[in-house]
Amino acid sequence: MTGLDDRQKAFENKFKHDEEVTFKVMTRRARLLGMWAAEQMGMTGSDASDYAKTVVMADMEEAGHADLIRKIKGDFTDRDLDFSDHRIEKKMEEFLSIAKQQVMDGK
Q1: Which range has the worst mean pLDDT, 10-19, 25-34, 44-53?
Q2: Deepest of 24, 30, 42, 83, by most Cβ within 10 A of its Cβ?
């Protein structure tokens, strides 16, 4: 029974690790997207960093990425910036790829 217990423990550890990596990647993606959005709105420095934090928090409101699009689209609309959902989604895809690489590289 020890072999089975060891395999189960190894599986649980791998699952936990994979979930942690996924969380880090998604958080990094949201931060990168937030920094991009801040730049589009003319923010720099600590204002941009603070805004990116609000985007990360918005990403935790619900599963999926609809919350991110809603947050950024709303903020763009408030500032009379016209960005389509599709354009924001494309940036999200771009930043997802970058975030994966950064997390895998330990950055």
Answers
A1: 10-19
A2: 30
